[in-house]
Amino acid sequence: MAKVRKAVIPAAGMGTRFLPATKAIAKELLPIVNKPSIQLIVEEAAASGIEEVIVITGRGKTEIVDHFDAHPQLEETLRRAGKEALLREVVRPSQMVKMATVRQQRPLGLGHAILCARHLIGNEPFAVFLPDDLVDAQKPCARQLIDVYEATGRSVVALMNVPREETSAYGIAAGAVDVRDPRLVNISAMVEKPAVVDAPSTQAIVGRYVLDPCVFDYLSRTNPGRGDEIQLTDALAAMIVERGLYGYLFEGNRFDAGDVTGYLLANLNWARRTPRIWAAIEQYVAAHAGGVPR
Known about the structure:
34% helix; 294 residues; five-stranded mixed β-barrel; globular; two-stranded antiparallel ribbon; Spore Coat Polysaccharide Biosynthesis Protein SpsA, Chain A; alpha/beta
């Protein structure tokens, strides 16, 4: 079984839910405490054994590339000042993985964005990380999926259960639980953002995938769907019929960093790892527990 060495991060979106903050900065660079959210994604990729990351960018996203590049002047300034700990944090993004970028020239959907990386992926299995989805897990979410792929040879997507009234906000999968593992689902159907009454289950597809390279053939044959975009879900639905697809109910906590509320919750989650910051938050909440400050 081929090792999963490469990953695609589609990051060409305009970040309209965060305007006006994203008028001049890429949404993926908004910080989770003191790290850009996309750095948390790349850290997960590296911790999962990924060696090469292809970021799909759009117009105005060159600063993402800059973040993962070396910055000799800044590094030398920190070195001369003796700020070794901070220097290590600045250098780390450029050393985690090999990085490449591809420009998605037109916003034709997630499926099209992934198809843009075909020439760099080649005939290898690969992971997909959607940068809006941050997952805090003891074992990286992507590693959980890679283990399934390398054990079964079948493409796999991350799943989590959501309230039925929220199913219209997600791609939804349905299928039978595998007898070998209660977290493994043999997917038989999936639909992109169905009406609540039409949702085949409450198992939502989260932004982590490990895919066989044959998915590119399905994407190239997929017609524009919802929103007049090429939907990855539509390509995977076609692939199910011929090759099958697993879902995996991953262990961990997922935060929607593409939504303002989810973004703030992600900040609180990662802030808990720094006692000084968390103590200040607890103090603030205790002082204002009686109501919203004016």
